[in-house]
Specification:
Structural class: alpha/beta
Pfam families: GT_PLOD
Strand content: 15-25%
Number of strands: 9
Organism: Micromonospora rifamycinica
Largest sheet: 6 strands, mixed
Distance between the termini: 26 Å
Protein name: PLOD1-3-like GT domain-containing protein
Radius of gyration: 18 Å
């Protein structure tokens, strides 16, 4: 088993101080694929990953993909294999409480009722045999939006999901998962991956919070609100193997809590002292 991530900045503090040391502590082999930062888009992760899997990984080898700048691991290979074996699908993705990036449109694409607490795909963590991941990427070289009548209808009204969200890897995998439910599963119960991003009902909120934080830094109301929310949330330990602090605001709070010595022991016990 390998854990693979893609980084345009190998010295990013989250990668260097949290992801890499946590993988080492729980005995996971972390492979960091470096990419040129100039012009890099989230969808480029797919090309980088498929190239590496094709050239360096056997089709039957189990791989875990993880985001580089906002994740860390709490449990190792034995736990990952055991939890993964409980799923019927060969490829299993992390899940989250928000339908991102499609927002309300994404809700309408899901025909089945949401499975709580994490109903929607998150592409910041997934696991599966290299061959199955490569087969999905080959079957869908681009986001398969043409397979969704709603997206075609919206396109005639000027709402082009491919134009708006095409650079998003999460957009791509969300559509693929909806078309391939027997192949792609979701970790709705957070046994493999747990996402600690804030749940929102208005999908514009996260963008406003990020803009507020960029403009005002740690004096921003959004930062103070997220700091308080996350400290409360982290009082309950995660049972997953990977935890994901998605959103620029959330990961900034985590790094500050680390610097302040305020991260709970269930997170810091896997980090070097």
């Amino acid at each position: 088993m390998k854990v693979i991530t893609i980084a345009t900045d190998p010295e990013h503090p989250f990668l260097r101080r949290l992801l890499a040391p946590s993988c080492e502590a729980v005995g996971l082999e972390l492979v960091v694929l470096t990419a040129d930062q100039k012009g890099f888009r989230p969808r480029d992760k797919r090309a980088c990953l498929t190239d590496h899997l094709t050239r360096h990984v056997a089709p039957d080898e189990l791989v875990v993909f993880t985001d580089a700048y906002d994740t860390m691991f709490l449990r190792g290979e034995e736990y990952l294999r055991s939890a993964y074996a409980a799923f019927s699908q060969p490829v299993v993705f992390s899940a989250e409480s928000n339908s991102w990036p499609l927002g309300s449109v994404g809700l309408a694409l899901h025909r089945d009722p949401p499975v709580r607490p994490y109903p929607y795909l998150n592409s910041g963590g997934f696991i599966g045999p290299a061959g199955d991941i490569l087969a999905l990427c080959a079957r869908y070289p681009t986001p398969p939006s043409e397979r969704f009548p709603l997206l075609d209808q919206l396109r005639t009204h000027g709402f082009d999901a491919d134009r708006l969200y095409g650079p998003s890897d999460q957009y791509y995998w969300t559509l693929v998962r909806l078309l391939e439910p027997d192949t792609v599963g979701l970790d709705n119960g957070a046994v493999l991956f747990e996402n600690f991003a804030p749940a929102v009902t208005n999908f514009c909120e996260l963008s406003r919070w990020s803009s507020d934080f960029r403009a005002r830094g740690r004096q921003a109301p959004s930062y103070r609100r997220e700091y308080a929310r996350l400290r409360t949330r982290l009082q309950t330990p995660s049972g997953a193997a990977q935890v994901h602090f998605a959103s620029s605001l959330t990961k900034a709070v985590v790094l500050d809590l680390l610097d302040e010595g305020q991260l709970p022991s269930w997170l810091t016990e896997v980090l070097p002292q």
